Amino acid sequence: MDSKRKKIRKDWKKKIVLKEEDVMEMFGFSKSTIARLRRTGQIPYSKLGGSYFYQEKELKKMLRANLIKP
Hints:
70 residues
C-alpha cells in the first residue's frame, strides 16, 4: 500500500461519525435543534438514505466557536 493510501486510512480512523440519535444523546440537542443547525449550515452533515451523520470533531468545533465567555 502506498503512503497516500496509508495516510487516508489513518485519517479516516481518527474521524468519529455519529448518527443523529447519538448527537441528541451526547450533546443534549433536540431533533428540531439539529435540523435547524443543518438547515442554517452551522454543522456539516452527510445523508445516507434517510439517516443523517455528523463528525464528532466538527460538532465540538461548532460548540467551541459558540462558547460564551464571561
